Amino acid sequence: MPHTAPTIALSPDWPCQVKEPGTRDWERTATRWLRDLLPARYAGYSPLTRHHVILARHAQLQLQHEMRAVRVALQTSRAELPTLGVAEAVIENTIRMYATELDQLGRLARGVRLVTDALAGDHPAYRRP
Fold first, then answer.
1. 57 to each of 10, 25, 47, 128, how far by Cα in Å?
2. Residue 31 and residue 100: Cα distance in Å, rounded?
3. Is the pTM of this model over 0.85?
């Protein structure tokens, strides 16, 4: 019976757009994914384009701030939107939208942490099945 290497699976939070660490071009896919998380105006900043760990750190900070903004919007929707003349049904849809976005941002933040660790040379993105 042939001997096979133990199977190592990526964490479920590993972004599907990023190749597995250690494979060909994985860092290129990681930096492309991280850049896509930032506003377009950041594309011209050389520290972010030349140093993937700085890019990853900035993506983490960007997501943290986005999550804070969505939490504030979610927490204040019921009090502030009626004063702007927004209908109750629209407010409820807006609250659901913010909750969905907060979940999505959380998933992205977990993925960024995994990619950051992998880019820094640590690989907690792996877990044994």
1. 21, 20, 11, 26
2. 25
3. no
